[in-house]
Amino acid sequence: MKTATGISFLDFKKASTTADFPDQFSHYLKSLGDIYFWEKGNFHVVTKAEDARNVLTNPIFSADRGGFFISRMPDMDLSLIQDFFGVVKKMMVMSDDEEHSKRRKIASSGFEDHIIDRFAKTVQQTVKKLVDEVKDKNQFDFVDISKRLPSTILADLFSIPESDRENFFTLANTMTGFFGGASNYQNADGIEVNNAAKALKSYFENLIVSRRNSNGEDYVSILVRAQKMTQLTDEELVSQMIMMLVAGQVTTTDQINNIMYLFAKHTDIQLEVKKNPLLIANAIEELKRIDPAVTFIFRVARADGMLNSQPIKTGDVIFISTHCVNRDLPLEEKPDEIRIERKAAHFAYGHGPHYCLGAKLGRLQIRLLFEELFKELPLLTLNETLESKRDHYSLSFSGFTNLELAQR
């Protein structure tokens, strides 16, 4: 079995420069091998796209990562997070086989094409409002836009009253940070996330009751009506709703920031898409390939076997580096370069049965935002008088704490 060691991945992420992070990080992980056992993390690492597809489509690898999470909490009293785990273990992202299919089917009922297409007008209105707010600002922190767009869109999708929204997303962020590894996993952290899980669960339980006989077109009402055609319990339904909220907010914010940074850094590319807006959608996909918000996707082996040349035992954890597998292209295609006409596949939304359910909504938000930005604003560049800072708040996610832009 090939093993590797060195500076921890999270420490490497934090030590990388803002400008060079994606390249530095992917090169570091790739330099250790195509597939290897990372001793410091006690998991295998995959850096080749073919191996990644195998892991993400082969039923021998489970999405149930509860045991791995628990192994990262040796100092925590697990009795403090029973409500949190009660919600998480019923999410489709932690499920396999028929259980996953059943949960995914009902969650997807609110993301059918005709629903998202109808919702596009609401997204466009929100995008226009956010862009209008910065039109007269010579410089601004773009993170304000990137945070507010997905949170507003999700609140609109769920039809959450304005008075509840701030608290609603504070609770969601608490769960996302804990779920994604942005925690010291002390008892105080457990109490905080458990309270957040209980509060969200109670909130959604009340929403289900109030919208049980609703004809509304919001996500909650649609799922409640679809529940009649499945065997999902209310608890399972609540878990899928919380999952869509938690998964769709922070990751979209991070991805928007990562894309904007690359556009602002490479102004020649920005000028090209401003000149030809039809290039924007494909350019965005190429920038996701270069700097995905989710840095690792991981699975757990359900049986002994081999992954490429690496022996895998039952219970072993496999981490897929999205930065590496996204760049697994022939050398002549220069995978580290940004080529906005390129149509290379990427893993920014995953792959296989667990491919991101909200990908279409995420793409819609991001495309409409950058179309509006490049239509209504002059050239957006990095503000040289203020430092933009990456936010490597966990092993699994990377975005920006602040992203300082100037209009030229």
TrEMBL record:
Please name the InterPro entries in this protein's record. Answer: Cyt_P450, Cyt_P450_B, Cyt_P450_sf
Indicate the transmembrane segments per the record.
none
Q: Which organism was this protein described from?
A: Bacteriovorax antarcticus
As for family, the record states:
Belongs to the cytochrome P450 family.
* Designated name of the protein: Cytochrome P450
**Where does the source fall among the domains of life?**
Bacteria
